[in-house]
Amino acid sequence: MIKEKAQILDQEGIRRSLTRIAHEIIERNKGTDNLALIGIRRRGVPLAERLSARIKEIEGRSVPVGILDITLYRDDLTTLAHQPLIRSTEISFPVCGKKIVLVDDVIYTGRTIRAALDAIIDLGRPKVIQLAALIDRGHRELPIRADYIGKNVPTSHKESILVHLQEIDQEDSVLIYEQTGKTDHSSRDAAPNRLKN
What are the C-alpha distances in Å from 30 to residues 23, 35, 43, 59, 66? Predict the structure, then answer.
């Protein structure tokens, strides 16, 4: 059984985190020249779009946003459904020579990011690839770290992180859930939307 444990971020907390990340991206890259954001489907996409909007507010210049689907690059593809849902990758700019900031909602084991790196490299050779994550919950299985983090949330393996975004879920919040009693994978699937555990 899965039960809600606490709210980590509310709408204002998410807004502040993204504003800070936007400032950090500008500072680290010395402006927006040659910069592009790529959101990992699903919730990395609206986060990348929000970051782009914040950067434009700060710098007065637009930063392009791409959409990356990593389904076919996942190392657990054989354990997914027989016909996994594959959505399109939509990157309208050349990645060669670009400063790319990958954007995702939660970084956990690092395997999603490894898949995203493979997918981007297949499209070309960026000058640099950086990573922005709204939540870092620890428990890395690969030597991958985020360059920009909204909030570090130390978790146990029995806990899960659920990110709600207005564009997809009609609300902004980050919640932590806890597995109680005997592990039941079907109850995980029955939880609201999906859990990052």
Answer: 10, 10, 27, 11, 21
Q: Beta partners for 90?
A: 67
> 10 Å Cβ neighbour count for 87?
13
Nearest to 169 by CA among 149, 191, 153, 193: 193
Over the stretch 160-184, which tens digit does the pLDDT of each residue have?
Answer: 999 999 999 999 999 999 988 755 4
Classify strands 99-107 and 148-152 as parallel, antiparallel or unpaired. Answer: unpaired
Domains of the chain by range and CATH?
12-156 (3.40.50.2020)
User: What ranges in 34-87 are assigned the alpha helix state H?
Assistant: 44-59
> pTM for the whole thing?
0.87
